[in-house]
Amino acid sequence: MRAYLVGGAVRDQLMGRISADHDYVVVGSTPDDMLLAGYKQVGADFPVFLHPDTGDEYALARTERKQGHGYGGFVCDFAPDVSLGDDLARRDLTVNAMALDESGALIDPFGGKTDLQNKVFRHVSDAFAEDPLRVLRVARFMARHAHEGWVVAAETLDLMREIAQRDELAHLTPERVWKEMSRALQESTPSSFFITLREAGALGDIFPEVEALFGVAQPVEHHPEVDDGLHTMLTLDQSARLSGRLAVRWGALVHDLGKALTPKDEFPRHLAHEARGVALVERASERFNIPTDLKRIGMHASQYHLHVHRSMEMTAKRLVALFSDLDYRRRPETLADLVMIAEADARGRTGLENRPYPQAQYLLDLAPEILKVDQREIAERLRDGTKISNEIHAASVRLVSHKMDAVNYSALKDRASGRPAEQGGFLFRASTITA
Fold first, then answer.
1. How many structural domains is the chain composed of?
2. Is residue 200 a part of any domain in this protein?
3. pLDDT in the model for residue 65
4. What CATH number is attached to the domain comprising 3?
C-alpha cells in the first residue's frame, strides 16, 4: 500500500500557499485493508477513508468510465492494480493532476507544473468532456485566479463549448449549479465565473437572466460602458471589493435583471426596470433553491437600488417608508447590504470606479432613528391596531426629520451631486445617478 498527496494540496504547495485540505490517493490496497488499518470509511459512490489520526481523506486509486448523462453516470473501478497514473489521468486539469510521494518527490505526468508556472488551466484528456460539472469548475477557478493573470487554454475552452452544445449542462441539478456559483461569487473576481461561462457558450444554460443582459444598451452619459451585461460584471466585482458577504454579491449580480425586459424601442432608457426585475430575481432564486435571506436581498436589490441612489432627495416620510419596506427594525443588516449593493452599482461604471457614494453613510446614519420609537408605550396607550401603526410611523418620521434638521448634510449632498462643498446648496439632484 502506497499513499500519495494529490490535487489541490500539491498545486497550492507549488504556488507557495497553505492548503486547508490534504487529500491522498492510495495505490495497491482494498477497502478491507483500509478498515483493518484503522481508517474510517465515508462516501457512498466510491471508497474514501479518513485517517485515524489526522482525519485527512484517503481515496483508493480509481478509473472512471462514462455511462449516462450529467456529472453522475460514471462507473468506477478501484481495484488494487489501478495505478497512480491511471488515477491522475481521470482528473480535470493538469494543475490538479500532480502528486507527491512520501519522500516529497513530484509526480507530474501531464505537465501540470509547467501550466502552473504559465498560469494556464488545461484539461488532462478528452475525458474532460464527459463531465459537464467541469465547465463550472473551470469557471470557478477563473473567478479565483483571473486577477493573477490566469487563462483557460484554447483547446480546453473548445471542449467546454462542446459540452454546452451537447446540452449536457441541462443534466446538472440546480442545487449543484448553485453550489459552484455561490463559491465563485465569494472569490476575488466573481465576474470571471460568468464571463468564462459566456465564452464557453454556457451562460445561457446556467443563468439565462444574466446572459440576456449582454447587448442591452444603456445611456452613455450614465454608463460609459453602455452594455448592461458588462455593467453587471463591473458591479459584481465592485461588490467583491466592498464586502465579503454572499448576500451583497448576489444582490449585485441580480440588481439589473429587469433591464432585459425593456422593449428595444425604449433603449437606452429603462423605465420601471426595478419592478420588472423582481419577478426575474424571484424565479432565479427559486430555480436555484437558494436560502430565503439571499432571495430577499436579491429582490430588494432589484426593487430599491434606485431608492438608495436618490435617498438624499427624499423626504423623511419617504425614507421611513423605505426603512419599513426593508423591515429595518427586525433586519437592520438588510439596509447595510442594500447600500453596499447600490454603491457597487454606482461604481460599476467604466471610469467611475472610485466615485464617492455618500448615500450609504446618509442612510445608515438616519435609519437607527426609527428604533428610538417606544412601540410598547404607543401600543399600551392606543390599543387600536390602525392607530398604533399610524402613530409609530408618525413618530418615526418626526425623529428622522429632526435628525435631518439637526445634522448638516450639505457636504454629503454636495459630494453626491459632484459640486464642490464650498458652493453650498441643499438640493440633491438624483439625475447624477440614474438607471
1. 2
2. no
3. 66
4. 3.30.460.10
Pairing relationship of beta strands 120-121 and 2-6 according to DSSP bridges = unpaired
Q: Which of 55, 90, 115 is the last residue of a domain?
A: 115
Q: Is 74 a residue whose pLDDT tops 60?
A: no
Task: Kindly state whether residue 127 falls inside one of the protein's structural domains.
Answer: no
- The predicted pLDDT at position 425 comes to 27
Q: What are the pLDDT digits (tens) for 353-390? A: 998 999 999 999 999 999 999 988 998 888 788 889 99
| Nearest alpha-carbon partner for 104 in 198, 179, 9 | 9
Single-letter residue type at 321: A
Strand partners, 77: 63
> Residue 271: is its pLDDT beyond 90?
no
Q: Which domain holds residue 265?
A: 207-432
Q: What local confidence, expressed as pLDDT, does residue 44 receive?
A: 63
Tell me, yes or no, whether 218 and 108 share the same domain. Answer: no
pLDDT of residue 219: 85
CA dihedral 75, 78, 84, 85 (to 10 degrees): -30
State yes or no: pLDDT of 37 exceeds 50. yes
Q: List beta partners, residue 76.
A: 64
For the chain, what is the radius of gyration of the CA atoms? 27
Task: Give residue for cell 485527512.
Answer: 56
211 and 110: one domain? no
Residue 1 shares a structural domain with residue 106? yes
